[in-house]
Design a protein that fits this description.
Length: 481
Amino acid sequence: MSTLLITGGTVVSSTGRTAADVLVDDELIVAVLAPGSTLLGSDLTASVDRVVDATGKYVIPGGIDAHTHMQLPFGGTEASDTFETGTIAAAWGGTTSIIDFAVQTTGQRIETGLAAWHEKAAGNCAVDYGFHQIVGGVDEHSLKAMETLVDEGITSYKLFMAYPGVFYSDDAQILKAMQKAAELGLLTMMHAENGPAIDVLAEQLYNSGKTTPYFHGIARAWQMEEEATHRAIMLADLTESPLYVVHVSAKQAVAQLAAARDRGKNVFGETCPQYLYLSLEEQLGAQGDKTWGDFEGAKWVCSTPLRSREDGHQDAMWQGLRTNDLQMVSTDHCPFCMKDQKELGKGDFRAIPNGIGSIEHRLDLMYQGVVTGEITLERWVELTSTTPARMFGLYGTKGVIAPGADADIVVYDPHGHTSIGMGEGRTHHMNMDHSAWEGYEIDGHVDVVVSRGSVLVENGEFHGRAGHGQYLRRGLSQYLV
Ligand code: DUC
Ligand code: ZN
Ligand code: ZN
């Protein structure tokens, strides 16, 4: 048991900011005190085990990244961050909880896939972790197995309208799964892209000699995302199943979500930093790197794809975050190295493993949106911590600085600076041979990171350990109307 006092900072929540000291006892926040309060003694700093001076800094609830893929077998290889390396990188960036996707591949039992995911994560995480369940084969067995998920602390599951032959579900399967989810109170998460049509377009492009990463973005056209988003919404409406659409990148898909929300539906959307900052033209079409030439764009091959800046998709994502037509920002952290991994798709963009690594930079990249006036300070906290906690049944324990909550706290310095990337003086701890964010400069800095009362990062040093992170048994969503 030890006590920790964070003094002199500005505590920021989703609803406001206030000068306050935060007292931590063992793993929990036990008091949020007015500065100078003598309620618990005239000099609390002398009676606690440790003091963190947060003068001039923000004190925020630890980040929750609700969309990660550690060690995901995908695209003929495996995502390059282990639960250990990925959660250490998360901690560096102020993320103290992740929700990863346990995988049931087609033909496998859900129980087997879930057990394998527990095995990969247990004892290896530096921050707390929970799971969503990917249902990669909707059949009698998996529909039955869904009945056990809530007891396992898994209250959300993901279906794919893309990737035929891998994770894909057809409409009949989606309908059946949503009916079951509605009965059980599970939140349906959807990868909303029309996979069969995309595969045809991709093949046509490839056959006409259009083989570079840029054409990944052309094949996965916005119409494919809008159509699938609309279809998912209609199926969710019919089955009265709450719906959460992951990695939204097309402005037309946001419009579909907004229309459903205007009708009062439990329909939600997440976007990711890559869809706010990066584009089809600048990244997927990149030719700047001497080593990779026009294959450099492979660094940014992910699905849904980066979209055209000319068409205004990035602006629409920021706007959706402001209007709450999009409720959250997760990373879809799914890192692959260029060497031996992305390289698999040299000469054929269809074989490039899909994914970008960003788990370390989400808080910083979103804080830059505060600096540039895209979102407020409070919205920053809401998008990166409070809503993820509410959406996925963790609120009260996570997502808030209040007595009784886990002491997951970040001291963020608005006068600090962060240079992202692999170069000298820059920051990158993910297990990748490149950064998708090389050269990004942030007008702020993650100074101190506390997870359940343990200081993981301080003074530019990592003090955490693999195994500190505990499995999070989640409750039902606390965000539904
Ligand atoms: N999209 C990605 O970019 N990677 C993992 C899976 C997905 O849907
Ligand atoms: Zn997806
Ligand atoms: Zn994903």
